[in-house]
Design goal:
The chain is mainly alpha-helical. The protein has one domain. 53% of the residues lie in helices and 5% in strands. It has 3 helices and 2 strands, in the order H-H-E-E-H. It has a two-stranded antiparallel sheet. The N and C termini lie far apart (36 Å).
Length: 83
């Protein structure tokens, strides 16, 4: 793959990740697709013990853990997913 094509592919991937992040933050703030309080608590407990948790930011997907854990349709980015 040429450098131009590779840069274009990386840019497209970065834009897709950014759009997903914006959508996720919007869902969390507007309380759309929200998990119940027990589910949120369980996810946050798992994340609090995870070695990928870097001060409330996931080092794999770079999400804000306190927001992502509230969204029912989201999954842990680790392999295998922890929740």
């Amino acid at each position: 793959m040429c450098n131009t094509c590779n840069q274009s592919k990386q840019s497209s991937s970065m834009m897709s990740n950014l759009a997903h992040g914006i959508l996720g933050v919007s869902k969390a703030v507007l309380k759309i697709d929200q998990l119940n309080s027990i589910g949120i608590s369980n996810r946050r407990d798992i994340c609090s013990k995870c070695d990928k948790n870097n001060g409330g930011i996931c080092s794999i997907c770079h999400c804000i853990i306190s927001l992502k854990t509230t969204i029912k349709s989201e999954m842990c980015a680790d392999t295998p997913a922890k929740w």
